[in-house]
From TrEMBL:
Superkingdom of source: Archaea
UniProt-recorded name of the protein: CRISPR-associated protein Cas5
InterPro entries the UniProt entry points to: CRISPR_Cas5_sf
Lineage: Archaea, Thermoproteota, Thermoprotei, Thermoproteales, Thermoproteaceae
Amino acid sequence: MMLVKLDFFSPFVSKPAFLEHGAGPLLPPPTTLLGALGAVAVRPEERFYAPRADFVLFWAPPYTEGVGLYRHYTLMTQKRTRLEKLPKAIEAVLKGREDEVVESGMTARSLIQNFLGVGSRREVYFWGPAYLLVSGGEAEKLAPYIYRVGQKEGLIAATPLRFAVEDLGAREVETRFYIPAGWASECVAVPYYGQVTAQCREEYFFDPRLGLNAERQPFYIPPPMGHIKVRPAKGYTAVKIVPEAGSDLYAILPRGYAEG
């Protein structure tokens, strides 16, 4: 396993899958993190690549959620190949051929509206460093060099940390890692320290262990402040992660991964 501290220089910006605007995942899902790791492997090429991983978990510091206005097309967030398509679409519209198909079934008019249109996207501001816990040969090797998460403007600084792992067995633990729902037999959210508990929030992510073609699976998400209390399900174990710097972290992992 590899543990990496992530310092965000900007908010995490997300949108729904296959859409250009709206509220996407609250926290970087495993597929986003795998894509960020893959970007390390293929840069400076602009193509999607997801390295193999047994699992990818994200520890979220306290955060604030907001909404920002974004233009879908910018020189930083779009591929060079798309930059080459835009002048062609503008030329077609100027010549009265706005319904001409210029890319992947898109007409010149719809391509311009898509690229240059303005809409809302979710922004999540983290109050401190986050942590990435990843297991899998290639993904582990790439993790120390991760430089962005999500949009290409979402630059981060990655610091790999040496750590020790203590197996806690079936003990209930408090954590800010998001946890696949199938890994926990119980989950209770404590939104603010010392206050009443609430139902754990679920978001549906693709689980890298099941492959990208599998259906999305529910994950328990930590609240903006506080933590979630989780107890491991059968086949899983609670662990304490002791990094070389910083506070101890707690998580649930598949049995056999508690050796570090």
